[in-house]
Design goal:
The protein is an alpha/beta fold. The chain has 17 helices and 15 strands. The protein has 2 domains: 220 residues, Rossmann fold (3-Layer(aba) Sandwich); 157 residues, Rossmann fold.
């Protein structure tokens, strides 16, 4: 029994799903491999991800390969027309845009009640909720995959504490995911979403990027490309040094925000932007989260300290800080590239979903042999995804010669070798 907003909107969703399919060659190629091998046939797969046309194609591809697929998503990330199209295609969906937090949780529990053997997750909430609210489901699971940096972090903490009971493939850490989706995809989507919401050029504006991981790197690069003056903040001295070498100013966040026109948090850590940081921002400055987690901008703490929302236009809300100044909070501090835009570029997400399908293949191929910990996707699977994508762009890799292979397989010192 699905829980969606409006089944009658299926045609609208279907048309956009069909359009997206034409730009997802790597996903299609990996799905064809799953179909040919028969490895997912009859396997119950739960897909808990942003519900829009690209994700819908993954659900449909898995179903076409013989899997029993069910889908859930938080309301703010749900496209109701796409949800209707999936239900029309026979896939159970538990997601609707107007869902409250409590309804979102109930929808995930309904997904888990399908007793999935594999979970494809975004943010690892479904994996973690299975451990706390539906632990009986875990015993029959082959494992799960997780495709975000902020989702992999708590899973590694679960592993460290001995709480993780299933193998999880960190799809996020595959090179064909993190080097492309995190940097190019999220970077572009975040900056473009902010520009659209504000209706203001970034040219000449001071943009502060908190966190210089791969997401922060992409955000800084795209903001600079649009003419912004970028300052980076990070707690990691190596990451901060990388930002310097990339040509950005680097400073502590409490210093950088004092002249910021726009502050973008890209750490994936709750409480990154504190009440004190909000109070230090110049009058009318804007604050947003790229990727990220709930309360990355500490709005609950801000309210407790006396901050109030004074106006709202669409997804731009103006807040008065406890010290009397005003700042603009974009999309209530949610993942702005998803909840206030249309997600990351489709060609980039094609790689990420290809990695997710490769991870499903790996979990099922090694079912009952993988330890309950966070695993990396094997190099050969990562390479396979990249090769499919490369071919779709008309490219191909070179081939090592016999001489090169011989060199790589040798270690003994040679006459004339440089040994200075």
């Amino acid at each position: 029994m699905s829980r969606i907003a409006d089944p009658s909107r299926w045609r609208e969703g279907h048309d956009r799903i069909e359009w997206a399919r034409g730009f997802m060659p790597a996903t299609a190629a990996l799905a064809a491999e799953l179909t040919a091998s028969g490895i997912v046939r009859g396997v119950r797969i739960a897909l808990s991800d942003v519900l829009e046309p690209k994700t819908a194609n993954v659900a449909l591809a898995l179903a076409a390969a013989g899997a029993e697929v069910a889908v859930s998503c938080v309301g703010r990330d749900t496209d109701d027309a796409v949800a209707a199209a999936l239900v029309h295609a026979g896939i159970p969906v538990y997601a609707f845009a107007a869902a409250t937090d409590a309804e979102d949780r109930d929808n995930v529990l309904a997904l888990l009640d399908h007793r999935p053997e594999v979970i494809i997750d975004d943010g690892s909430y479904t994996i973690r909720l299975a451990h706390t609210a539906r632990p009986d489901v875990l015993t029959a699971m082959a494992g799960a995959t997780e495709q975000t940096t902020s989702g992999v972090r708590p899973l590694r903490e679960m592993e460290r504490q001995g709480a993780l009971r299933i193998p999880v493939v960190a799809a996020n850490d595959a090179r064909t995911k993190s080097l492309f989706d995190n940097t190019h995809g999220t970077g572009q989507a975040v900056v473009f979403a902010i520009a659209d919401l504000l209706g203001e050029p970034l040219l000449g504006r001071h943009v502060v990027v908190a966190g210089f991981g791969r997401v922060g790197t992409g955000i800084a690069r795209h903001a600079a490309a649009l003419g912004a003056r970028v300052t980076v903040t990070d707690v990691d001295p190596v990451a901060a040094l990388q930002a310097v070498f990339a040509g950005y100013a680097v400073a502590p966040l409490s210093d950088a925000v004092r002249t910021a026109d726009l502050l973008i948090s890209a750490t994936g850590i709750a409480g990154t932007v504190t009440v004190e940081h909000l109070a230090l921002l110049p009058e009318g400055a804007a604050v947003a989260v790229g990727g990220g987690v709930d309360q990355e901008i500490a709005l609950t703490d801000a309210v407790a300290a006396g901050a109030t929302e004074v106006s709202r236009v669409g997804k731009v809300s103006t807040w008065r800080t406890p010290t009397g100044g005003t700042v603009r909070i974009l999309d209530d501090g949610y993942c702005i590239n998803v909840s206030a835009a249309e997600g990351n570029p489709i060609e980039i997400m094609d790689l990420s979903f290809g990695v997710q399908l490769a991870a499903v293949d790996h979990l099922l191929t090694h079912r009952d042999t993988l330890e309950p910990r966070v695993h990396l996707l094997p190099r050969e699977a990562d390479d396979r995804v990249a090769a499919h994508a490369l071919a779709s762009f008309g490219g191909a890799t070179d081939v090592l010669s016999a001489q090169q292979l011989s060199f790589l397989g040798s270690w003994q010192p040679r006459d004339g070798e440089d040994h200075a």
